[in-house]
Amino acid sequence: MPVDHKRINGPEESVPYELFARLSGLTSEKAFEQLYKAGKRSDGREFEEHRKIFLKNGAVSQAKGSAYIEMGQTKVIVSVFDPREIPNRSDYSLKGELYCEFKFAPFSCAKRRLHQQDNEEKQYSCIMKKALESAVCLHELPNFQVDIYALVMHNDGSALSAAITAAGVALVEAGVPMYDIITSVTVGIQQGVKLVDPDSLEEQMCQVQFLSEKYQDNNHGLLIISKLHTQEQLCQFYQNGYVSLEVLKSGLEVLSKTCEVIVPLVQKCLIKHITNGIKS
Amino acid sequence: MSRKKELLSRVGLRLDGRRADELRRIRCKLGVFTQPDGSAYIEQGLTKVLAAVYGPHQVRSKQKAQHDTCIINTQFSMAVFSTNERKKRPRGDRKSTELSMHLQQALLAVIKTELYPWSQIDVYVEVLHGDGGIYPACVNAATLAIIDAGIPIKEYVCACTASLGNNDIPMLDVSHQEEVIGGPTLTVAALPMSGKIVLMEMSQRFHLDHLPKVLDKALEGCKDIKAILDEAVKNHVREMGSSTGWANTTS
Amino acid sequence: MSLCDAEKTFILHGVAENFRSDGRDREGYRPIEIETDIVQHAFGSARLRLANTDILVAVKIEVDTPLPERPFEGKIEFFVDCSANATPDFEGRGGETLAIELSNILASAYKSPKTFNLKKLCILKGKKCWKLYVDILILECGGNLFDAVSLAVKAALFNTKVPLIKSVNIDGDNVELDVSDNVFDCERLDVTNAPVMVTVCKIGDNCVVDPNLAEEQCSVGSIVVAISQEYFSTVTSIGIGSLHAQTLCSSLELGQKVGIRLNEALMDTLSHITSDQDFGFLK
């Protein structure tokens, strides 16, 4: 990877000290056992309960539209800039384009992130772009490009979902024509338990396969969907891990349901934005 | 270290058992792909190259268009697994940019560019396996691909390398092993029929007195390669035409 | 490639009638050809042609240090290179977006320990492990890249021979590996669970697999599913367009059904390949 010489770079490779400290000593398997026994998650939520969301538009004054979202500890800021002509393009395109950049701030995760986008961030940008492309009326922006930047300031799980939901609000504030309100939710799957809106520990828990004998169920993984709610259309769907068809289907239902829960929140935020606009 | 001795044994055989004036085995095929307008595959010893030609078509960036000739756009790239040590990037480094330019020069010399004003021809070469003589293999493959695309050329352009073994015997078609051991390498791209030289490049050194004979050897190699390519083209055309039945009437 | 409305309607009607423009039904694949062991420098390689989609995969192996958070595991890295030979659009950095998308999906599909066990690639805990570089070269693209790439990768991994380590000498912080001198002394990788990807493409009211370039143009939304045994290792939607939850479920079912069949056919073919069937590009 080419090194960015314009800024002072941190060490290329670093190891979080927790690995050596063994302070937490809590392996994913043990954490899951605790959670399973309690029937509740570490922050007191039910398995299929979403964290409290704080959503506010107009967080970045320079941007045309922006939104700030908090889901538990996860904090994401999304800014949308004015449509501009698609750069480096000679032919005229009838449809507009979106440019998405998803970035974890260097200090947002347990492990320090570099300033340049790594592969995971590129993949998330890609997923985000896909989700938003089906929500924006691209034919109304011929030969234009809308730039969307998402910056995760604190990653405590479900950062991508938070970014997509916030991006929907930011796009509305920027006045970009859209078909519908877009919401996104993540669910983690482990041993048939579905953890809606997992935090980063739970996300990790859902990525591994437990070795001990008592866990016979192989299902584990993450599901992320984005939904346009009036039409009930899924505009983006992503899953990883190792999940059977039945679990996938039931997970889908849970996700759809949770999306509906978020919609009023987004609507409220938008209404507030408009009434404030009228008042001033 | 008597490294010069190692290139040629006492009985005149090289490391891989060839004689000094022997080429490696050349196998080639035209029309390997369907989507490009012309494509070719060539194997020279272990060096394997694929070439594809798109065009002539409209110029992609309007500023570059020229009213009297067509522009030839070349790109050289090397698969990351083509060398012993895995490469980091397939293209974009200085060596591949240089080779792209040299390839463009060689092709400009033969393509009748004046026939296609305002247009562009794309030539892409991909090295699948590099074992010495990459540039010559690329030139030869590109020539075949251009012929397959049906683009008019003045004559074949062929390239070949030559070296000097044991300080006075010229050797043809240097392999990677011989390059590494360290003989001087002279790369020549030439028009074998008219005997013109399009490009000549030399690495390391030998005395000026040796140049004529090494150059002669390389040109001879180009002629041999031309004969092989010509044969392949004829076979290809015969095969293509056999469905219509006309090939039988001429031969 | 751009199609006019009439052409699109023709394809749409064909799909509705379960008789596509090239004579296949909705679940049918175009002919696939596989060759293995065609790159001499590599530890394993495969070339796959799916109609005129042409993929070359080579696996190289290097010794590396395991990640500190995963001391028991080896590494695998996917690198996709879209050769300009496939289409002039890939010239320079034009193919980069597609290449990143492909390599990310592959990485995600191979991430779960149930699909591909990286623990087998560990040589010495926390010190030494094998790193597999899976390099994918796209030489021609005639639609359905995802399926073709995943099949080729699986074939190449099947073909991969990992050198056998006879002994490990530890001297303080230095670790010396003693690799077996015999070239034929090697281990095969276990790829029975390695995922196979199927692109399910919604055209009109129906879903088809293995779309060609023209059909990809008519699609209103498509998803890629990576199937490992009967489990899903990755599902992702690609391209513009949204799906109803109902459609998504039915396309998941279709993808699973076809994926299992495809995997069986691939494993069967791979077990029949003998080393003397090498034709390469000269065929």
From TrEMBL, chain A:
One of its GO terms (cellular component) is nucleolus. Keywords: Cytoplasm, Exosome, Nucleus, RNA-binding, rRNA processing. CDD domains: RNase_PH_MTR3. GO terms for biological process: nuclear mRNA surveillance; poly(A)-dependent snoRNA 3'-end processing; rRNA catabolic process; rRNA processing; U4 snRNA 3'-end processing. InterPro entries: ExoRNase_PH_dom1, ExoRNase_PH_dom2_sf, PNPase/RNase_PH_dom_sf, Ribosomal_Su5_D2-typ_SF, RNase_PH. Belongs to the RNase PH family. This is Exosome complex component MTR3-like. It comes from Sitophilus oryzae (Rice weevil). The gene is LOC115885444.
From TrEMBL, chain B:
Belongs to the RNase PH family. One of its GO terms (cellular component) is cytoplasmic exosome (RNase complex). Pfam families: RNase_PH (PF01138), RNase_PH_C (PF03725). It is found in: Cytoplasm; Nucleus, Nucleolus. The gene is LOC115885315. Non-catalytic component of the RNA exosome complex which has 3'->5' exoribonuclease activity and participates in a multitude of cellular RNA processing and degradation events. This is Putative exosome complex component RRP41. InterPro entries: ExoRNase_PH_dom1, ExoRNase_PH_dom2, ExoRNase_PH_dom2_sf, PNPase/RNase_PH_dom_sf, Ribosomal_Su5_D2-typ_SF, RNase_PH. GO terms for molecular function: RNA binding. The lineage of its organism: Eukaryota, Metazoa, Ecdysozoa, Arthropoda, Hexapoda. Component of the RNA exosome complex. It comes from Sitophilus oryzae. The keyword Cell membrane does not apply. GO terms for biological process: nuclear mRNA surveillance; poly(A)-dependent snoRNA 3'-end processing; rRNA catabolic process; U4 snRNA 3'-end processing. SUPFAM superfamilies: Ribonuclease PH domain 2-like, Ribosomal protein S5 domain 2-like. Residues 22-152, 156-221 form the Exoribonuclease phosphorolytic domain. Transmembrane segments: none annotated. Coiled coil: none annotated.
From TrEMBL, chain C:
The keyword Zinc does not apply. It is found in: Cytoplasm; Nucleus, Nucleolus. Belongs to the RNase PH family. Coiled coil: none annotated. It holds the Pfam family RNase_PH_C. One of its GO terms (molecular function) is mRNA 3'-UTR AU-rich region binding. GO terms for cellular component: cytoplasmic exosome (RNase complex); nuclear exosome (RNase complex); nucleolus. One of its GO terms (biological process) is exonucleolytic trimming to generate mature 3'-end of 5.8S rRNA from tricistronic rRNA transcript (SSU-rRNA, 5.8S rRNA, LSU-rRNA). This is Ribosomal RNA-processing protein 42. The gene is LOC115879858. Residues 29-163, 194-257 form the Exoribonuclease phosphorolytic domain. The keyword Cytoplasm applies. It comes from the Eukaryota. Signal peptide: none annotated. Its main location: cytoplasm. Keywords: Cytoplasm, Exosome.
